[in-house]
Design a protein that fits this description.
globular, 797 residues, 5-stranded parallel beta sheet, 31% helix, single chain, 6-stranded mixed beta sheet
Length: 797
């Protein structure tokens, strides 16, 4: 061990002390040995170091920092170098605020469009997500601090996220849900990794030996620190045995005492604890640079990068009659609340206090466009307002083009809750229909962090999607509208025609004990392309103000080369995509999978030769019988596309295999071999899993325990507990009724779906586990005994 000499000077109590936080954001220090504390801060798209009281919900203000576009936005740039530069600037700002560990990037897969935290994640494709994440990590850590890739793993719903059991077959786990982490760990080399809240196949992720030791440590060779998500520790000793060094936030010494007792009893050998201490010390001593570099950063320089990132990430989805770019002298009616108050980031723990803000209305004054006025047109929170609608229509009648800013409000996309539907609020759609009647020349500008349905798309001529484009997004979108910037973003996720078309429609979210990933490997375009399902916009899709021609494909055992020409009259950047599909029918596979990409900058008329190499992941699949990665000997179709549905060049390559036999009986998996895996039977899914599907419902016959949620008080034995449940439901309903949706969301996230153990884990020792035992006695029908127990172990009265 690197720090063996130092560790030998430490008592068991001091070693255990280091294994949990000192407070909400900092780790413990041991001054006599020169071991300083670390400061951890949220930061997927901007540093959120809170200036006053700490919380994990985004409630309290943080120190000003650059709000960059969210991961879902930057993924549309498909520019790894840009991601690395953003990471570099994030790291610089973190260092200036004396932050040692920046909690990001997040790289969970976008299994379902309704996941409330999709705006924080890159893509539905693990190759794209992994490459982008590796870029961020390299950039962040170039500044002497640690990135923290999260949430490991299979954290794909927010509802009941702290207690849901994700049932996933091994092949989908390895090929889809872990590959992005594998790329991030091996290519980005993060010093810290955050475990997720959920269970995976019956075991909490930070206690899951298969996940944490077999795969992360042994197979991938990860030597860094694993930190729990805040309040995410279930069994501290099981987590420690799995290699989870750091528990956050503080438990006021309660779990440290558990570790000490386990060492003394022989339940845990001290050498195992020493390994965890050694890895934590490496993190502490290699990120000390952050604490020695206090100071300011160049606000304007960082704002310019945020603007560039937003510009490269804007996706042009529709341009009927070349209505865009807007021409000089056009009279514009600007309509929509989001034009005045831009939606540029998500809600929850990632909220950034921006250094600079702006909106389209301010930028229009400096452009060559003629604005004849602005009308909000609708209430942001979804309430109908005919007066605003009528005023917007009156303005639209006088314009050449209507610029309609629409999207999802802040309370619709947030940590801790999933979206209820894929729809844009009805009042905005009503406005669109009314505007169309008076002026059909409508260009819509969409602001949201994930997929939405667009049955109204035929009523607009132009559509620009800015996603959540950060503090400089309004100006970036304005430059795309005017043609100062040629749009080059392409979608990092598929847009289905309707929510019912999604492969996980029947199994999202898990409402009680489990969530079943019955679609297996068929997520996103892998499903739509294989099942021949029509979509609104395919994965990798995006328009430009110029055109590109692909030619002269050459395929070898090492990779592909081809020529790309900008055949238009303006410069641009094209995202070229390499897809690979196995032609054999022996093992069920998606018809094609992304295996490479590049963003190529071309002047008007320029031709450039592009090379995309193969790597160790290009042809592999995970064989559940041999329990390792294999290559099937077969012909593979090698495709170069402008999107997953727009293949420009293709050829066939035979690849030698590793000789393993098929792991499946085809007759047992008809849905998976057809690719139509959106409604798989229980029997077929059980065969794929290799074990009986767990019971998905709560066991209402048992008393409530640590991992049951407060929502489960609805069936508690004690009438007072059921009253508390109904009171929470009523307060939530009432807050929505009076349009306090953000507050209502916090109740659902921090109370309703919280497991009882979270009360202890998230209160920093104010409520300890002994007190929690008393609370559970009260809930389960022994009220006075429980109350006595709570009072007996209450330290603060």
């Amino acid at each position: 061990m690197k720090y063996e000499t130092l560790i030998n000077q430490m008592s068991v109590e001091e070693k255990a002390l280091l294994m949990s936080g000192k407070d909400f954001w900092t780790t413990q220090n041991i001054d006599r040995l020169g071991i300083h504390s670390l400061y951890l801060a949220d930061g997927p798209h901007g540093v959120r170091r809170q200036a006053a009281a700490a919380d994990h919900l985004g409630l309290n203000a943080s120190i000003q920092a650059t709000c960059y576009p969210t991961a879902a936005t930057v993924a549309n740039s498909w520019n790894v170098e840009l991601g690395e530069r953003i990471g570099e600037y994030l790291g610089e700002e973190a260092a200036s605020q004396q932050v040692n560990v920046l909690l990001g990037p997040g790289i969970n897969m976008k299994r379902n469009p309704l996941c409330g935290r999709n705006f924080e994640y890159f893509s539905e494709d693990p190759h794209l997500a992994g490459k982008m994440a590796a870029g961020y990590i390299r950039g962040i850590q170039s500044q002497g601090i640690s990135a923290c890739v999260k949430h490991f793993a299979v954290n794909n719903q927010e509802e009941r996220r702290m207690s849901i059991d994700a049932c996933v077959d091994e092949r989908a786990l390895r090929e889809i849900y872990l590959t992005a982490f594998e790329i991030a760990v091996q290519e980005g080399k993060p010093k810290t990794l955050m475990s997720s809240y959920n269970l995976l196949n019956g075991s909490y992720t930070n206690e899951n030996i298969h996940l944490m030791r077999d795969i992360l440590r042994d197979e991938w060779g990860y030597q860094g620190v694993v930190v729990t998500d805040w309040g995410g520790s279930n069994d501290r000793l099981a987590g420690l045995l799995a290699g989870n060094e750091l528990e956050m936030p503080t438990t006021a010494g309660e779990t440290n005492a558990e570790i000490i007792r386990a060492i003394q009893s022989g339940e845990i050998v001290e050498e195992g604890l020493d390994e965890c201490v050694n890895r934590l010390l490496e993190l502490i001593f290699t990120t000390r640079i952050a604490s020695s570099r206090p100071g300011k950063f160049d606000v304007e320089k960082h704002h310019k990068l945020a603007k560039r990132a937003a510009e490269e990430s804007v996706v042009l989805l529709k341009n009927e009659g070349n209505i865009l770019p807007l021409r000089k002298g056009m009279k514009l009616a600007v309509i929509g609340n989001f034009a005045e108050n831009p939606r540029y980031q998500g809600a929850g723990s990632s909220i950034v206090n921006p250094t600079i803000t702006g909106n389209l209305l301010d930028d229009l004054e400096q452009s060559n466009l003629i604005s004849i006025g602005y009308e909000p047109g609708f209430e942001r929170q979804g309430k109908n307002n005919m007066k605003k609608l009528n005023k917007a229509c009156a303005l639209a009648q006088k314009a050449d083009v209507v610029l309609l800013y629409m999207g999802l409000d802040e309370a619709s996309e947030t940590e801790g809750l999933d979206r209820r539907s894929m729809e844009i609020p009805r009042n905005q759609i009503n406005l669109l229909h009314a505007l169309y009647k008076v002026n059909p020349n409508i260009v819509a500008v969409l602001a949201c962090g994930s997929v939405v349905e667009m049955p109204w798309i035929h009523k607009i001529k132009g559509l620009i999607h800015g996603y959540l484009s950060g503090q400089a997004g309004a100006g970036a979108i304005g430059r795309v509208l005017t043609g100062e910037v040629n749009p080059s973003g392409k979608l990092a996720e598929t847009y289905p025609l309707c929510y019912e078309d999604t492969p996980s429609y029947h199994h999202f979210p898990g409402k009680e004990a489990t969530v079943e990933y019955r679609e297996s490997i068929y997520m996103g375009y892998r499903y739509y392309d294989t099942a021949n399902k029509n979509v609104l916009f395919p994965f990798g899709y995006g328009l430009s103000y110029t055109q590109y021609e692909y030619s002269n494909l050459e395929v070898s055992s090492k990779g592909v080369t081809f020529e790309l020409t900008n055949t238009g009259d303006v410069p641009g950047m094209e995202i070229v995509q390499l897809y690979v599909g196995c032609k054999s029918q022996e093992i069920f596979r998606a018809v094609k999978e992304l295996k490479g990409f590049a963003k190529v900058c071309l002047a008007a008329g320029e031709t450039r030769k592009v090379t995309l190499p193969f790597d160790d992941k290009t042809f592999r699949y995970f064989n559940v019988k041999t329990n390792k990665w294999e290559i099937e000997a077969a012909d593979y179709e090698i495709s170069i596309g402008a999107s997953s549905a727009d293949i420009r060049l293709a050829d066939t390559l035979f690849v030698e295999g590793t000789g393993a036999h098929t792991p499946y009986d085809k007759d047992m998996l008809p849905a998976y071999y057809s690719g139509k895996a959106n409604n798989v039977s229980s029997a077929e899914f059980e065969y794929l899993l290799g074990y009986k599907i767990p019971v998905s419902k709560w066991d209402r016959s048992q008393p409530l325990g640590y991992n049951d949620t407060i929502a489960q008080c609805q069936y508690a034995k004690k009438r007072s507990a059921r009253f508390v449940y109904h009171l929470i439901v009523f307060v939530h309903w009432f807050l929505i009724k009076i349009e306090k949706r953000s507050t209502a969301n916090i109740i659902m996230m921090s109370i309703y779906h919280m497991p009882f153990r979270g009360i202890a884990r998230m209160t920093g020792g104010i409520v300890n586990m002994k007190m929690l035992d008393g609370i559970l006695m009260m809930v389960n029908g022994r009220f006075f005994r429980g109350l006595s127990h709570v009072l007996k172990y209450t330290k603060w009265i």
